[in-house]
Design a protein that fits this description.
- Helix content is 25%, strand content 39%.
- It contains 3 helices and 5 strands; from the N terminus they run αβββαββα.
- Strands 1-2-3-5-4 form a 5-stranded mixed barrel.
- The relative contact order is 0.21.
Length: 119
Amino acid sequence: MKRSCGILGVGLLVVSAQLLVAEPCRVIHGRAILYSGDGFLEIWHIGTHHTFFVVDDKSSDLILNYIPYEDDGHLKALFADFTVCPTAKYRKGASQETIVRKVQNPHVVLDPFRSGALK
């Protein structure tokens, strides 16, 4: 009895882990921005109208390690190649929930249009 419960428990863990990722992981070239007013961390897939929003702390920490926090009112953007693993199915016109597994070729820039630097 104990053995079958253990096997069932392991099986449920494997299935639940697979359900976390709704689509295959892929590498995209994008721009990540943390909107400080509401703490919304979003990645725009460059060349598309599609955005992803980060749903876990590990992914947020991975991205925010590259973006220096300076209380100067200027928004910073991280351009990079992100390995994203969507946790929700694609819906046209909606930002897609995702987990970020890797950040490659990072480049941080001041976002002049959203930071108020072009006033």
